[in-house]
Amino acid sequence: MDYLLTAVALLVTASSICIHLVTRAKKPCPAELPPGSLGLPVIGQTFGFLCAIRANSVEEWIRDRINRYGPVSKASLFGTPTVLLAGPVANKFVFFSSLMPMLPRSVQRIVGERNVVSHHGDNQVRIRGALSEFLEPDILKMYVGRIDDIVRRHLDENWSGGRTTVTVLPLMKRLTFDILCALLFGLETGTVRDALSDELERMFDGMLAIPVNLPFTAFRRSLGAGRRCRQLLHRITRENKAKLGASPNNDLISQLLSMTDDHGEQLLTNEEIVDSSVGTLIAGHDTTSTLMTFMVRQLANDPATLSSMVQEHEEIAKNKADGEALAWEDLSKMKLTWRVAQETLRIVPPVFGSFRVAIEDIKFDGYCIPKGWQVLWAASLTQMDPSIFHEPAKFDPSRFESQSSARPPCSFVAFGSGRRICPGIEFAKVETLVTMHYLVRQFRWKLCCKENTFIRTPLPVPLQGLPIELEHKPSLSPFKCDQTL
User: Fold this and answer.
1) What percent of the chain has pLDDT over 90?
2) Mapping DSSP to helix (H, G, I), strand (E, B) and coil, where does residue 371 land?
3) What is the spatial distance between Cα 51 and Cα 410, in angstroms, rounded to a whole number?
4) How far apart are CA 433 and CA 292, in angstroms?
5) Percentage of the chain surpassing pLDDT 70?
6) pLDDT in tens, 9-19
7) How far is CA 226 from CA 111, 197, 208, in A?
8) Within 13 A of 49's CA, how many CA atoms are on the CB side?
9) What tens digit of pLDDT does each residue of 49-67 get?
10) Is the distance from CB of 375 to CB of 315 less than 8 angstroms?
């Protein structure tokens, strides 16, 4: 079956090349293009790029291009002419220019054509504004106790029970998914949430597959999962719409439904709301779970940092009654823990870079980026640059002690920058700090796999999902959580 699919894929590719060669001859070539090669028509450098991602060597793949062509070069990825950029100046250009975020065409087909990343103009501003308003600190303050309860319930049900072995990554994914469903979609435990979780995993499985829509291919399965995921969210949207006015808008979908124009009409269509919700679910699900997984891995091999974190959290716990939930003010005292998170993000960024698209001809470093070309910027290279971060391979949370760092602007861009900064940064921070508070106080652990390797799918995945041998600290009482959730 694999040989048949490969043959069909090659046939489709060959046909596309012929069509591309005929049409390309009629198109003038823009002047002042960056150095490099677009490679074979349609295929370009896509296969090499995908193989490098899966082999966790994408940084080396990009460095090879930098060594050959410089920090600005052209290539062809996913059938589209692409300009590759790297460095702090390039990062700043990406975040403060007219370049627009985008997803590869194949990924758009999976997650929905009208997702939040694909919106431009007024709709993009409105949706991003709604997200930012829902996720701003003043609103999140009201949800800290709820997140605290979800975290304690999750740990009590999945991590406790004396000495045991657990696999960290899937458990962290489940935790972040439960928090997102409860707070963003108003969706509690049950069959709908379980079905949504299953479809989300199937969606991810095919996002880096060769985009051939044929039976039995990973891409076809991912397309189907994306369609079913949107159907479930359409159902949730209809139910939330029916309840508008009867209860406060305490979830993202209800807030998007409540947005109206000057005539009182719903501002966004249900399709736009659903597709934007899928994008938000994807953006907030795996990134935070990946961060917390690699924090657990780091702390297993870093007793000094772990000891300091335990001390920080025990000081906070001294001022809490038994079973009392964390409050917003408690999170502001977790400065070391957040520095550990930032340093983890620097060394193992969940997203090594992303795509943008030029909506007009634009120049950078003397080169022209033509309208319609995509831009791939590689943030992870900047964060491991020894000229910016001394001994970049060394784990050193003290790098983030001072906000007025001597580093060039846009050197550390784990959450973006400027008007392109991730609206979910505070949400991710709350999830991470609350979870680590209970983990380091209630458990000790050691790695089952001594080899600290990981692959990218495209997010980093540690060896075997990071199995650990877990032990509940006997001196601490079991969790007390609200069992009505």
Assistant:
1) 32
2) coil
3) 28
4) 9
5) 84
6) 444 444 444 44
7) 6, 12, 14
8) 22
9) 888 887 888 888 999 999 9
10) no
pLDDT at 248: 58
Nearest one of 304, 302, 295, 297 to 437, comparing CA atoms: 295
Backbone angles phi, psi at 75, to 5 degrees: -155, -175
Q: Sort 103 into a burial class: Cβ within 10 Å, 0-12 / 13-18 / 19+.
A: buried
The pTM score is 0.84
Helix (H, G, I), strand (E, B) or coil at 338: helix
**CA-CA distance, 460 to 350, in Å (whole number)?**
6
How many helices (H) and strands (E) are present in the chain, helices listed first?
18, 12
User: Which tokens belong to 52?
Assistant: 């490098």
pLDDT in tens, 109-138: 887 766 555 555 566 666 666 677 777 777
Check the annotation: does 422 bind a ligand: yes
Q: How far apart are CA 464 and CA 277, in angstroms?
A: 30
Characterize 318-328 residue by residue with b for buried, 16 or more Cβ atoms within 10 angstroms of its Cβ, and e for exposed.
Answer: eeeeeeebbee
| Average pLDDT taken over every residue of the chain | 82
Q: What is the DSSP letter of 481?
A: -
**At residue 250, does pLDDT exceed 80?**
no
Q: Which residues pair with 357 in a beta bridge?
A: 100, 374
Domains in the chain with CATH codes: 30-118+351-413 (3.30.43.20)
Token pair recorded at residue 310: 């335990």
CB 278 within 8 A of CB 226: yes
Quote the CA–CA distance of 233 and 240 in Å, as a whole number: 10
